[in-house]
Amino acid sequence: MKFIQDNIFNITCDALFIPTNGSIKKNGDAVMGKGLAKQTADKWPHIPARLGCLLQDGNHTYCLYQRERGHIYSFPTKNNWQEKASLKLIEQSLNELNILVETHNWNKILLPKIGCGCGQLNWESQVLPLIKRTITEKTNEILWIVERAET
């Protein structure tokens, strides 16, 4: 696992994971109104509709967009946008991430400090220990945790 400070959208990778929730608007779009999810929706306006459709099958990790610098995946941290992040859901998403790493021949994946912004969890005492307990050795070798760089 490597820790860096940068703009997560500017880093070339195989897969970029965006914290998401399981809420769907009346129009069918996923709720992506804050944090990195909102930044993603602002950059790629078709993503909320795609995620909204995919969420019909449950709140899981989905490929949302294939861009030149690496695919964008959802990474569920909340069931409802109004709730705090769920450690149980983050663990589920980490397990799905492990499966994706085993399935694909990836060399670098990016993950922000999940659940710690709008999700209101503590990075050092709650989220980082969960990541260390849950990810496989192979995932650990290619995972980059990206902390937002001040612009």
Structure description:
This protein is α/β, with parallel strands linked by helices and 151 residues long. The protein has one domain (2-148): Leucine Aminopeptidase, subunit E, domain 1. It contains 5 helices and 6 strands; from the N terminus they run ββααββαβααβ. It has helices spanning 35-43, 47-54, 87-103, 123-134, 137-142, and strands at 2-6, 15-21, 63-67, 70-78, 109-112, 143-148. Strands 1-6-5-2-4-3 form a 6-stranded mixed beta sheet, sandwiched between helices. Strand 3 (63-67) and strand 4 (70-78) form a beta hairpin. Helix 3 packs parallel to helix 4 (123-134). The protein is globular, with a radius of gyration of 14 Å. The protein starts with a strand and ends with a strand. The mean pLDDT is 93.
Structural class: alpha/beta
CATH fold assignment: Leucine Aminopeptidase, subunit E, domain 1
Topology pattern, helix = H, strand = E: EEHHEEHEHHE
CATH class call:
Alpha Beta
Chain-averaged pLDDT: 93
Helix content: 25-40%
The main β sheet shows up as: 6 strands, mixed
List low-confidence stretches: none
N→C terminal distance: 24 Å
Q: Give the C-alpha Rg.
A: 14 Å
- Which word captures the global form? globular
CATH architecture: 3-Layer(aba) Sandwich
Strand tally: 6
Strand order of the largest sheet: 1-6-5-2-4-3
